Amino acid sequence: MNPGLKLLLVMLIALEISFTQSLIVNVILIAVSLIYILLHRISFKALFALVFWPLFPALGLFVSQWLYGDAGIHFAWILFTRIYAYVFLGATFTLTSSITDLALTLEQDFRLPSKFAYGVLAAFNLMPKITEEIKIIKTSALMRGEALHFWSPELYFKAILSSIQWSQNLAEAMTSHGFVEDQDRTHYKIIKITTLDWALLIVLFAAVQAMLYFIRY
Amino acid sequence: MTDVSITHFTFHYPKSDVKVLNDINLTFHSNHFSLLSGPSGSGKSTLLYFIAGLYPRFIGLDATGTIKFGDTDIKQVPRDQVSKTVAMMFQNPNQQFAMDTVIHEMTFVLENLRIEPAKMDNIITHALTFCGIGNLRSRVINTLSGGEKQRVALACIVAMDPPVIVLDEPFASIDPDSRLDLLHKLKVLQTEHGKTIIIADHDLADYQSLIDEFYYLDPKSHQISLLDAPSAQKFFEHFKSTQTINKRVPLPSTSDPAILNIRDFKLNPHHSILLKLDNFNFYKGKMTLITGANGIGKSTLFNALTKLLAYQGTISYDGKNIQKIRPLNYAKNVTLLFQDAENQFLNITVKEELDLSLANKFTEAYSAEDVQGMLQALDLTGRDNQVVYSLSEGQKKKLQIVEMLIMNPPVLLLDEPFKGLDYQSLQVIVGFLNDAKNKFGQTQIAISHQLSGLEALIDYHANFKNQNLTYQEVVK
């Protein structure tokens, strides 16, 4: 499915289940998403992370609603599954779509200005460098006798300083590679939204509507 | 034929009396290979960025005078035509790509130039083959070594096919084989494809037989002159002489106490082995100089020693595995003077920086008066309220060294500590380092390309070559 439409669908469903209360629909969404990502052969480690990390907020919500809320254990389960529904819906996109294809479709089909599409893509590709930089900032601070934590303003000051420098360098590099804002470009890989893509979007979204209408538990 | 002619070109920062470039008049001839040299920080990059059409746009400050390609002022070239006129290769291999993989970056470049998609495959294959990196086509750029990244950068330029190619210290962090290979590729681009090559470099190795013109940016007059053959010869010889010093040092004796021990050690950050050591010691209270070519892994070794990078094997400090020492405790004992001074700064003004070191110093070795004396000797006084990031590169380096000396760690790793320093400051700092070693027993391990002036400092010399580190008697 076209990555742009897939993202749209995931966001629409996620928004909708924020305002509806159906435990079974949540579970169905989780199950369908799980089957979808398993079909794409994701690693066991990634799957474990998907199950493990949301456990803390999900359990927290569950327990506080169950013990201290007025709406009872059924609502507590809805909150619990809702967290997992968000995570698994998100995973159907993040684990199976290429960020490059998303940028391409946003540029070609959704008419997003190319500087945003490629700017975001470039920033995304800088992520590993940012992790490295944070490590350098922290180590360098230790060498000056200061332990920086994620709440330390110095960490952010230095990180922002580096990002400004990088974004400048990146803009220069893109320019020297011939990129000009708001100028037409040719496209090696044409990404079109097909009728099948639209059909899938409509059918899946309609299916969720039907489930939410009929399954009220 | 497109000569690049520069007339009455002057650039200076506002609020500064010093002109970075002072009334430059010269012509880079079409189809010539021109080398522009001069000390680091003298303004070579600034000129190249203007030639490449990146400045004034990315600096927000204009210069006076003109830069013309043939008869056309670079400022009159429409923005979508600039890349068809001139392309630039940058110093930092890590910040010149927008996309994830080599092939994506190259298609991005060609799409920008509005090349027909049907022609792209051929252009890309040809450019990659020319640069000898056909096998890197689908690789993720972040996983490539510095040398490989610069080859990809050159492949992008070959695909763009502009008449003028500008390169800003492109070899600063790549290995000598890649450097030589890239230089020969540039020569082929000049002789067989009619390109005009303008390259800035302060490292003069390998250029003598390749270049047509040698330009020198004088750091005092801020002017560029074309050198005649005898003066060029002098520069090449002088450069060679700074690369060696005539000094013999003893090999470590077996009775020396080791402070850092490296065992069964392997370093392979880019899927290729940089360094392999069975058993290697750095010795307590000694100054060990590490020499070796660019980009072969010297700084990477420091990253492993400071736990910034994963490695295989064991590193022990004072007999204890460094992975078992708590981070703050280890950082206080084995401290790195970063190659880039800005990495060391945590605060905003000079005074805040010095106060932080005085407040957190690991020992009482230096008093506030000592620090004032050091600042005076380095001509850094009276700058208390200046923002550290606005200091010149040389001043940043001096401040950085002073604040790390104040910390007085038992082991100080120094990564190119003399880069960009004038000779007099270098001698003052050599004195400070000697004091730290002799009075406080500090162990120093330094990576340095600058050798002249260090004679009084070096106790041992370890050479990094062929993925190995060996102690040697001769320093060169």
TrEMBL record, chain A:
GO terms for cellular component: plasma membrane. It is found in: Membrane. The keyword Cell membrane does not apply. Keywords: Membrane, Transmembrane, Transmembrane helix. The chain crosses the membrane at residues 12-39, 46-68, 83-106, 195-215. It is a multi-pass membrane protein. This is Cobalt transport protein.
Automatic annotation (TrEMBL), chain B:
Gene3D superfamilies: P-loop containing nucleotide triphosphate hydrolases (3.40.50.300). It holds the Pfam family ABC_tran. The keyword Cell membrane applies. GO terms for molecular function: ATP binding; ATP hydrolysis activity; ATPase-coupled transmembrane transporter activity. It is found in: Cell membrane. Residues 4-244, 260-476 form the ABC transporter domain. It is a peripheral membrane protein. GO terms for cellular component: ATP-binding cassette (ABC) transporter complex. InterPro entries: AAA+_ATPase, ABC_transporter-like_ATP-bd, ABC_transporter-like_CS, ABC_transpr_CbiO/EcfA_su, ECF_ABC_transporter_ATP-bd, P-loop_NTPase. Belongs to the ABC transporter superfamily. This is ABC transporter, ATP-binding protein. The lineage of its organism: Bacteria, Bacillati, Bacillota, Bacilli, Lactobacillales.
